[in-house]
Amino acid sequence: QVQLVESGGGLVQAGDSLRLSCAASGRPVGSYAMGWFRQAPGKEREFVATITKSGGGTDYADSVKVRFTISRDNAENTVYLQMNNLKPEDTAKYYCAATWGIGTRRPDAYNYWGQGTQVTVSS
Hints:
globular
């Protein structure tokens, strides 16, 4: 199985940028479609973005489209989430996840999860 470790979160101001990384170990990350999800206190985990195994296809939640970009470097076994023009409503713990299947917006379709990294955006 694959182990996932997220990094790159932090406290930023509205309008700033952050790049989250998800480092995979145990199995090649290229074996999986990958997704980013987030969860704010008191709210359900929500879909952010997903990318196909090759990186040729992506999908985004409407709330982050244009501002966020998901990418992957299979040679480095890492998946990224570039977040630009951050807003206070982006504040959440961000999780990366891996699925043997195709990328999807459904969190229950993902087989492996990281522990998350906190992103806090002040106004």
